[in-house]
Amino acid sequence: MSAAPLLSLKGVHTHIGAYHILHGVDLEVPEGEVTMLLGRNGAGKSTTLRTVMGLWAASQGRVQFKGQAIGGPGGQRTTPEIAQEGIAYVPESMGIFADLSVQENMLLAAREARRAADLDAARLDWIFSLFPALHKFWLYPAGKLSGGQKQMLAVARAIIEPRALILIDEPSKGLAPAIIHNLIAALQELKRQRTTLLLVEQNFSMAQALGDSVAVMDNGRVVHSGRMADLAADQALQQRLLGLSLGAHQ
């Protein structure tokens, strides 16, 4: 008997104003694994992450985390409450504060720290080993970082304290191949530590390198779920679900 998923969405619908974006999403995120959320632009992937975080409320269905309702009618929690449960979110916009230093950005993300000396030194050293540029630019304004360095800061903020689940929306978007390679290496280190990740990603070689399980969305629904390795090995399925093959994006 398989263990219950860390996060599950059951029949989730989301409306944004007059627009009906999610149409009954069913999704399970196993604990200790990396789940990739794939699909064409406009399929509802980012809306799914934002619905999990309570930024947009589910109008129908249920979002459950560790077996408890955090979203849906009658069980909707606020975004701060959801974050307090141990879920971190890295939006596509990265969500960093450009006018604040790298250090100040990290402090804001660390719930238990009020000054730099309060940060867990061992954990900070580990983060610097993943993202050396953050150490180099520790006192620089975050707005002066390169695009890749800003993405590293966004991920670093999500892991400054241990989190049960990290949601990341298109971490490789707009980044140079060398920076993507570094980002993959950092996320693989999180994976080795059995950090549970749910990633929206358009870079299929990155998805293949990181993913344990995969869900493919289309028109606001999950139309396929399974093991990432199985999807990567089946070009006909890739073509049907995504309109291209992963092999074309190595």
UniProtKB/TrEMBL annotation:
Q: TM spans, by residue? A: none
Q: Name one Pfam family in it.
A: ABC_tran
Q: Which GO terms describe its molecular function?
A: ATP binding
Q: Does the keyword Transmembrane helix apply?
A: no
Per its UniProt entry, which superkingdom is the organism in? Bacteria
For this UniProt record, give its keywords in alphabetical order, as a comma-separated list.
Answer: Amino-acid transport, ATP-binding, Cell membrane, Membrane, Nucleotide-binding, Transport
**Start and end of every ABC transporter domain?**
7-244
Q: Cite the Gene3D superfamilies for this sequence.
A: P-loop containing nucleotide triphosphate hydrolases
Sorted alphabetically, which SUPFAM superfamilies does this protein's record hold?
A: P-loop containing nucleoside triphosphate hydrolases
Concerning its family, UniProt says: Belongs to the ABC transporter superfamily.
Protein name according to UniProt = ABC transporter ATP-binding protein
| Source organism per UniProt | Ideonella paludis
Taxonomy, top ranks, is: Bacteria, Pseudomonadati, Pseudomonadota, Betaproteobacteria, Burkholderiales
